[in-house]
Structure formats: structure tokens, C-alpha cells
Design a protein that fits this description.
The chain is α/β, with parallel strands linked by helices and 210 residues long. It has 9 helices and 8 strands. The protein binds adenosine monophosphate (AMP). Adenosine monophosphate (AMP) binds next to helix 2 and helix 3.
């Protein structure tokens, strides 16, 4: 099954993607993670993306479309995949359609802006492997240390409060119209993601079965 997870930054797409990935045994493709890895490795694409990312803006469509095209051609995507953080604009969704990629389900995880701000200020990520934690909702076993690889947990630059507000603005202007786009294609299910992680996972899995 080819799945898109939509929702504001911090709505829990990454966490839900991890769960679906475990259950359906299909890879998660996160453009944010791919860009962060490129940045860490000092590639040209990573450096190009840095200023946009740090300012809470979207990286230009042609860059992320290129990333996705390359990634989806890899063999592990043959039996399905979960897109987390792509598409984020109408031209990106159109590019996916133009590539002939068939999407089966689009799940939109809805969380209020107020909660997004709260969640993102508490988010911490492992600087080594990228795993995500939260000071309140998803604590690591040992404070400040990644459960998976013992890397140090840090706050992403783009999770700082000012940047979060810019990211939310961009989300409402550029990404939210995708709900209409996929509703018209009959693929959209809206899932309320306001409560705890397990509750949202149950709703997401139910939406995938329907
Ligand atoms: P994320 O980890 O998905 O929140 O992405 C972090 C940042 O990476 C975003 O704020 C953008 O700057 C950039 N980014 C990730 N995915 C995309 C995309 N599909 N289109 C444009 N920019 C993206």
C-alpha cells in the first residue's frame, strides 16, 4: 500500500509512520530526514536546503521532487511506502501524479495550532540517528540520551518557537490545500490526532483498513 501522511509539522506524522512501518513492513520516506542527513553529510543539496529549513520555509519544489523521485525508484519501495512530509505543496502532489505513482490512502492527522506549538517546544531528536522524543509525551529511558543508539538528544533549530510559528503559517498556506486535492481524488481520511499516540495509531490503522 502506498500511503501519504498529511498534517501540520509536529502533528505526529513521524511517530505514526514508525508504527505503520513496523506493522505493514513498508519503508517510511521522510523528506525532512533525507534533507537533514544530506546537511549532516555536507552535500550540495543539504547546504542549499539549510537556509530554507532554518527559517521554517519550504525547500524549493524541484529539490524535494528530485529527492522523492530518486528514493521511490529504490527496490524497497516496490511493495509500498509511507510518505511523511511529502507532498507539501500542490505542485509536489502534481509531480507525484505525473511520475505515475499510485497513492492508495492519504491520512490527514489533525491537531490544533495551540497544541502543535506545545508539542514542538518539547520535541527532542537524536543528533546521531534522528529518532524523535518528547520531554513530556515520549521520554527516553535516560534523560537526554537516545534509546536506540545512545546519541545525544537535542532540540531541532526549526523547533524553536519563532520558527514553529512560521512553519505553521507555511503549512496553512501551502500544505493544507492538499486536503482538498486528495479529497477530490477520493483518497483522504481525516484522523483526529489531538489525544495520545496510541489513540491516534488506532484511528490511523482503522483508516488504512477501510
Ligand atoms: P520535517 O522534518 O518534515 O518537518 O521537515 C523539516 C523541513 O525540511 C521543513 O520545514 C522544510 O524546510 C524541509 N522539507 C521537508 N519536506 C519538504 C517538502 N516536501 N517540501 C519542501 N520542504 C520540505
Amino acid at each position: 500500500m502506498n500511503i501519504i501522511l498529511l498534517g501540520a509539522p509536529g502533528a505526529g506524522k513521524g511517530t505514526q509512520a514508525e508504527k505503520i512501518c513496523e506493522i505493514l513492513k513498508i519503508p517510511t520516506i521522510s523528506t525532512g530526514n533525507i534533507i537533514r542527513a544530506a546537511l549532516k553529510n555536507g552535500t550540495e543539496m543539504g547546504l542549499k536546503a539549510k537556509s530554507f529549513m532554518d527559517a521554517g520555509k519550504l525547500v524549493p519544489d524541484e529539490v524535494v521532487i528530485g529527492i522523492i523521485q530518486e528514493r521511490l525508484s529504490e527496490s524497497d519501495c516496490k511493495n509500498g511506502f509511507i510518505l511523511d512530509g511529502f507532498p507539501r505543496t500542490i505542485p509536489q502532489a502534481e509531480a507525484l501524479d505525473a511520475m505515475g505513482v499510485e497513492i492508495n490512502k492519504v491520512i490527514d492527522i489533525e491537531v490544533s495550532d495551540e497544541d502543535i506549538v506545545k508539542r514542538m517546544s518539547g520535541r527532542r531528536v537524536c543528533e546521531k540517528c534522528g529518532a524523535s522524543y518528547h520531554l513530556e509525551y515520549k521520554k527516553p529511558a535516560k534523560e537526554g540520551v537516545c534509546n536506540l543508539c545512545t546519541g545525544t538528544l537535542v532540540q531541532r533549530k526549526d523547533d524553536h518557537p519563532d520558527t514553529v510559528l512560521s512553519r505553521l503559517k507555511v503549512y496553512h498556506e501551502e500544505t493544507e490545500p492538499l486536503k482538498d486535492y486528495y479529497e477530490k481524488q477520493g483518497k483522504l481520511t481525516i484522523v483526529e490526532g489531538q489525544h495520545d499516540i496510541a489513540d491516534t495509531t488506532a484511528k490511523v490503522l482503522k483508516a488504512l483498513e477501510d
